[in-house]
Design goal:
The structure is a single chain. This protein has 164 residues and is an alpha/beta fold. It has a single domain, classed as Collagenase (Catalytic Domain) (3-Layer(aba) Sandwich). Helices cover 46% and strands 9% of the residues. It contains four helices and four strands; from the N terminus they run βααβββαα. The chain has a four-stranded mixed beta sheet with strand order 1-2-4-3, with helices on one face. The N and C termini lie far apart (39 Å).
Length: 164
């Protein structure tokens, strides 16, 4: 095992491979930062039971995502149904990145990768928060929506019931 765990990158050129390794390393750091922020909310706010449950689930999702990031296969692939990147939720270890992934800056790459990694930890795509803030949506708690974690990476961690 190397510093990247057993991350395997395939069907990408040399520069893309290098960028993906850097992205994974920085995404792990970003997820640790999100966990610390969530723990700070638990310490500094008197959270309602249902909110505390969502915060705890978010911490679990992030810890799971960090662990899964060390055994991930990333493949560069052709465009797929308008996706930037995609994975099979919880199944396997592969995350596919499409050509549109490379149109985003390196910071956005981290958020996109975090979004995909959380799918490996049972989040879903109930909605996307590109122009909106995280919230419960269509019967799914914000802690179970993958784009919550990408949003946090782009905009900072917030709790919808408190300050999003």
């Amino acid at each position: 095992m190397n510093a990247h765990g057993i991350v395997v990158v395939s069907k990408c050129d040399k520069d893309e491979k290098s960028q993906i390794f850097k992205t994974m390393k920085l995404a792990r750091k970003d997820m640790v930062t999100q966990i610390k922020a969530l723990r700070s909310y638990k310490k500094n706010y008197e959270l309602e039971k249902k909110v505390k449950k969502k915060v705890n689930r978010s911490i679990s999702v992030l810890r799971c995502s960090i662990a899964r990031s060390y055994m991930t296969r990333v493949k560069c692939t052709e465009p797929y149904d308008g996706a930037i990147a995609y994975t099979l939720a919880f199944i396997g270890t592969t995350i596919w990145v499409t050509p549109s992934y490379w149109e985003f800056d390196s910071h956005s790459h981290r958020g996109i990768m975090i979004h995909e990694l959380t799918h490996k930890c049972l989040t879903g795509d109930a909605t996307y928060f590109w122009d909106d803030k995280p919230r419960d949506f269509d019967g799914r708690a914000w802690s179970g929506i993958a784009d919550t974690y990408r949003y946090w990476n782009e905009n900072g961690t917030c709790i919808p019931e408190i300050d999003c």
